[in-house]
Amino acid sequence: MDGIFSAYPFWAAWIFLFFGAMLRGQGTYWIGRGAAAGVAKGVTRTPNWWSRMQEKVAGRTTDRGRATLEKLGVLAIPLAYLTVGLQTAIILAAGLVRMPLGIFALAQLPGAAAWATIYSTIGFAAWAAAVRALTGDWWPLLALLLVSVIVAVIFRVRGGRRRSEAEAEHVDHAERSVQNSSTG
């Protein structure tokens, strides 16, 4: 453990990070619920800060979060805590689609626990490696970059295979439809 938590025992840092993740997730969820409620009520006069918030909520990243939530269902919530950049969008989308609070809170528990574990152990070490690289020691950043590229390539290859399989299935279905219509 590196940085501000090094003076504290592991369990204290973990508890602090766990509750921080839970509070942040709940706050983001309730912003989504508030935006959905405002739209449902047809609220048109809002303060400037709320209008800016609604523009962000209607953005492309939130659309990606909503698509992920629709694809994975409630499983997207704990998995969101393992992402960077999409976490807020998925949790916001859960509020926007009005996922029941009890289900959201239960789904949030393992995600927040995983996030707290990562950041109370290796997470801050990764950030420290990036800082060391920026200050002249580039080997830690190179290792982190290499691991990131390998993970990205794995996900890209797996996603490409899934798309190819889906396209092949679509073509087979279309061919069967043509055959059935010509024989019928």
SSE arrangement, N to C? HHHHHHH
Computed over alpha carbons, the radius of gyration is: 22 Å
Q: Which geometry do the CA atoms define?
A: extended
Largest sheet: none
Q: Tell me the total number of β-strands.
A: 0
Structural category = mainly alpha
Ranges where pLDDT stays below 50 over 5 or more residues in a row are none
Helical content stands at: over 70%
Q: How many discrete structural domains?
A: 2
Roughly what fraction of the amino acids lie in strands?
under 5%
Rounded mean pLDDT is 76
Number of helices: 7
- Distance from N terminus to C terminus (CA atoms, Å) equals 69 Å
Keywords: Membrane, Transmembrane, Transmembrane helix
InterPro entries: VTT_dom
Organism: Corynebacterium maris DSM 45190
Protein name: Membrane-associated protein
Describe this structure in words.
There is one protein chain. This protein has 184 residues and is an all-alpha fold. The chain has 2 domains: 3-122, no CATH class; 138-184. It contains 7 helices and no strands. It has helices spanning 10-41, 48-57, 60-72, 76-80, 87-96, 101-134, 139-183. It is extended. The termini are far apart.
Brief characterization of the structure:
With 184 residues, this protein is an all-alpha fold. Helices cover 81% and strands 0% of the residues. It has 2 domains: 3-122, no CATH class; 138-184.
Describe this protein with a few key phrases.
mainly alpha; single chain; 7 helices; 2 domains; 184 residues
Helix-strand blueprint:
Blueprint: H1 10-41, H2 48-57, H3 60-72, H4 76-80, H5 87-96, H6 101-134, H7 139-183
